[in-house]
Amino acid sequence: MSDIKPNILLIYTGGTIGMVKDAETGTLHAFNFNNLLKQIPELQLLDCDIETMSFKNPIDSSNMNPDYWVQIAEIIEVNYAVFDGFVVLHGSDTMSYTASAISFMLENLSKPVIFTGAQLPIGDLRTDAKENLITSIQIASLQENNVPIIKEVCLYFEYKLYRGNRTTKMNAEHFQAFNSLNYPCLAESGVHLKIKNDYLLKPTLNNDLKVHKKLDNNITLLKLYPGITSSYLNNILSIPNLKVLILETYGSGNCTTEEWFLNALKDAVSNNIHIINVTQCIGGGVNMGQYETSSHLKKIGVISGKDMTTESAIAKTMYLLGKLESAELFKNKFETSLRGEIA
Question: Could you state a single Gene Ontology molecular function term (predicted)?
Answer without folding.
Answer: asparaginase activity
